[in-house]
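hey
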């Protein structure tokens, strides 16, 4: 059971990072621009997009606001 939980956690982090990267590129934002708009460090964006960092719900909301999208878009294809 524990292996599955960790595997699922890794898959969620990868998809979340992929979604954030997709939305960022779609809007023509660099990592630096998204970091500025979301008020986070630019290195944090890279860590999230590469699934090296988990983020809080509050940070997801900040990204959604910066990307001018719904929170649900950031979680698309995650089940």
């Amino acid at each position: 059971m524990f292996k599955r939980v960790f595997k699922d956690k890794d898959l969620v982090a990868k998809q979340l990072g992929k979604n954030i990267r997709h939305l960022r590129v779609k809007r023509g934002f660099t990592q630096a621009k998204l970091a500025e708009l979301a008020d986070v460090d630019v290195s944090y964006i890279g860590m999230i997009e590469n699934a090296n960092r988990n983020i809080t719900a509050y940070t997801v909301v900040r990204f959604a606001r910066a990307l001018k999208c719904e929170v649900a878009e950031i979680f698309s294809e995650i089940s």
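The mean pLDDT is 91. The CA atoms of residues 48 and 55 lie 7 Å apart.
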